[in-house]
Amino acid sequence: MEIMTDQGFRKTIKYLRALIIISLIGMICMLILFFGVLAYAKLLGAPPLAVPQSTLFFSDNGTLIGESNSGQKRYWVPLDEISPSLVDATISIEDKNFYDHNGFDYKRIAGAMIADIRAFGKVQGASTITQQYARNLFLEHDKTWKRKLSEAFYTIRLEMNYSKKDILEGYLNTIYYGNGAYGVQAASRYYFGKDASKLTLSEASMLAGIPKGPGIYSPLASMKNAKARQSIILQSMVKNGFIQEDTARTAAQKALSIVGVHSNQEVKVAPYFQDAVKNALKNQLHLDDRTIALGGLKVFTTLNIKQQKAAEEQVKKYVSGTSEIETALVAMDPKNGYVKAMIGGRDYAKSPFNRAVQAIRQPGSTIKPILYYAALGEGFTPSTTMRSEFTTFHFDDGTPDYTPHNFNNKYADGEITLAQALAVSDNIFAVKTHLYLGEESLIDTAKKFGISTKMAKVPSLALGTSGVRVIDMAGAYSLFDNGGKKVNPTLITRVEDYNGNVIYENEKTDEQVLDPAKAYVMTQMMTGIFDPKLNGYATVTGSTVAKDITRPYAGKSGSTETDSWMIGFSPQLVTAVWAGYDVGKPIDMPAEKTYAKNIWANFMEEALKDKPVKAFKAPKEGVVGVYVDPTNGKLATADCPVRRFTYFVAGTEPTEYCTDHLMHSDFHPSKQKAGTKVPWYKRIFKWGN
Q1: Tens of pLDDT, residues 537-551
Q2: pTM of the entire structure?
Q3: Alpha carbons 585 and 564: distance in angstroms, whole number
Q4: Which residues contact 145 (CB under 8 A, 6 or more apart)?
């Protein structure tokens, strides 16, 4: 028996030794694994904290005009812009030892395990704020061991690489509060209609209770459950030393006003403009669709809300509700190309196709100012004359004969000046000029003006038969307005990421692309479409809206069988308006032919209502102004029944006096000098001359 006992004892010792060795090996392996995990976590570095957030769009004065969120409202706010009451309530109920642990609350985990064993089920959670944040950022919410292990690993990475402040800020900005509200800012605005920084203790304690079960504890789902959960949170804050008992009692008894509406959900100003902004973010800034939609960007745009509203009102006022005709408008600051208003169609809900930036339509006679700018560089002046008569053009190179027509087939059947040809929109004068300059000239000049659409080298190009975009034409006319400086149509001034870092800022350009003197002479010629002094065989094309305008404007109308245009400007604003049918249907109804002009004139007046009246500013040198007889372009005399003050590029002004109206024998043209200085008061009031 003693031998057996001794053998048994030796066996026991043997097994015990083996157990100890195995245990030591296991402990060493566990330590190696533990430190290996830590080393691997450190090697991987800080995990990215970016989460989907709403991208916000702002007008030129910082007013919110829209957002992109795919149904999820997310707005990131710094921790110091969150109510301290909400921070304390969240820590108290979710993780009271948050500042004392390294991501795992082992005492709480043990307590939860005991509670679960006693209840034979899952009755108590033990996840810390860091663990919940890791789950929200990187993981699905399924209950598998793989997910739990991944959560633990991400928790370690977060605690190793970020401060407690960063983790708490991130958690509060990503947690789900129900009804599409992610993060405290979106939730605060939704439930209480205020920023998270302004929440009271009563509001904060109710909000902190929602994440446990948004469908159960939201005050919109059940005020009874929400109040019960609020009471639990207030008592936990008392127990954990955040507030006093009487403070908790007062907060629990306070009646709360629940809003239940996302403050920005109805904010959808200028939808065509916002679509154009998103396209610019994608195509010009090369941002991907997800970043644009859910990158938490702040996009500061050029839109002027007042002018956008005026544009929408004028379209609604003048375009018949029974008509199927469409319209587009672009208003632009000529100094920098900032787009201030945009209409891409009559109803975005019915057709999001943006006719202001996507449609390519024939510009008609609105192309003529660009043609005549090129002509000024080839010896033409406002007083250059050519015959306006029914004309068929024949070509030796095999090009088919071409017979352009004036509106209503009316012609001067005599000489007219360039200034008058522009004002009454004479097509014969335009085609003759185009062929004289060479068909490449207009194509090259249009490119200089920023028009990028392809143009055909044909005689009819002078009458606008090659398509253009509305936004490009607004940009082109801006060059006349600003003295010839290059502008690019601009929708965005600055873009910030969700941390407030500027990732894009518009760069201003000061490149001179046109001759300032020629640009000014063309601008002054374009004022002629509103001036009855230039009436001839036809009235000036702006006569139908001249009664509606109260300040100096320059511009040009244009029409084809299927397109109606009006483009014009003041020193402060350029606006291009187009009207027509999407399918290219002819515009037959007389009222529809007036839409573009009426919208343009009344929009300009409304948009500039509070702006000072300004005349176009001449360049310091390079131009000369003289009075001419508008019928022949010669220097006017006292006997001329009509005199119009006209600007010329210096050195090209007329030197011959008009002798068509001589009434006095003592008049000697040689006694008057070309370019006679105009009195100061006539220069100031030359708009009325």
Answers
A1: 999 999 999 999 999
A2: 0.73
A3: 12
A4: none
